[in-house]
Amino acid sequence: MSTPHIPCLRLGKPYVSLSQSSVNDYRDGSEKATLSQVNAGVIRRDILRLNDAKAALNKLSTNELIEISAKAGEFFLKADLPVGVDGTTHSPQEYISTLSSTSGLPHVMVRRNMDKIHFALSNLKLILNGLTRGLDLSVLDNGFGEQAGSPVCFFPTTDALGLVMPSNSPAVNSLWLPSIALKVPIMMKPGRDEPWTPYRLIQAFIAAGCPEEAFGFYPTDHEGAGDILRLCGRALIFGDKSTTDIYAGNPGVQVHGPGFSKILIGEDEIDNWPDYVDLMASSIADNGGRSCVNASAVVVPRFGREIADALGEKLGAINPTSSDDPDAVLSGFANPKMGEWIDSAIEADLHQEGAEDYTAKYREGKRLVQNENGTFLKPSVVYCESFDHPLSNREFLCPYASVVEAPQKDMLRLIGPTLVVTAISNDSSFKKDLLAAPNIERLNLGPISTMKISWDQPHEGNMFEFLYKRRSIGMAA
Prior knowledge:
Number of domains: 2
Strand content: 15-25%
Oligomer: single chain
CATH topology of the largest domain: Aldehyde Dehydrogenase, Chain A, domain 1
Shape: globular
Largest sheet: 7 strands, mixed
CATH class of the largest domain: Alpha Beta
Distance between the termini: 66 Å
Helix content: 25-40%
Number of helices: 17
């Protein structure tokens, strides 16, 4: 198959730029595609034309767009879809193998991410029912209506949803999918190593009958990304803490950074900790440890060293395998320097008193592995004597977790802002404290993996409330 050229999509219209970049295999550097690069001026001009995109979506009802989304899910999962300007297409398997070759995700994880996206598109009505808290969706078509006997009126907060996407996990694309059914066009900068998933999704939507004008796809530089975030009335950004902290106080930008998700075991259940080792291990290592909902800390009142040892034994023997291994657990790093930096950061902090790597004695060789299959980091479980240690509340793009001892009464104060907390306890007083805790975005009461999310209950921002605002309305009889 020839190397495809992936164009910019200027409100759906392919645009081939003179400025181009390569998307390369992370293992051998071979070129997998060329990608049109556009400057900020192109993006600013297209933002001025968003009325056409909005008008195209407004010709369809919300329910029609939900049906189109379900069809798009089937196309995304099963169809051969365009991947370039020369008529090149990708079958689902070609998409899987190509994405794996540029992102480092093994095939089995790409398939799981595909299934998550397909589920989201196929169940969009259920998702919107949860996001809108049961609103009659015809209200979005008419602009007003009734809910629970009271008049309601909603209007969009923006002309487009801006997206600055990452390269580490395809399933994050599921977060923007409701915007199409909500009649809000997208303006996207794809991840440098992962243009494949958003481009395939856009082509699936178009094949299903969605207006092409609804989609802006702009591989661009830092200035272009900044304009997408600044000029779109609402935007999503993904990145590490240094990137997302810049926008933390901006109500128009929804920030998706490290989750610092945690498992808490209460005093009443801590003697039963061996029953939860598998749950803890899967929460730490599923999806290669790359998700913001992966557990990055296990907080317990006692038995911390014993738990760290049990997790070290279970995860420490995991080794990198080939990308097509159906049992692959680890992901390679598209940027080898990232893996090297993480390894050196963990090692440097381990030299500080109060922490011990409990995977080390179960690990074959070093944590960092570089071979013909790429650069990998084997799992790390670190026991920390307290939350004062720098490794106690860290998150890395690999299977990593600390085990920290803390009295139950201090846990909620010590854990800090946390995306997902799985709390294993039947203590009614502790449960009340958990339910009232303002620093937890999603709470799992009981032995539920931090990786398990409910699509009709957003674990990270409500897209409907982000894209629509309610106003009071009065109408003459």
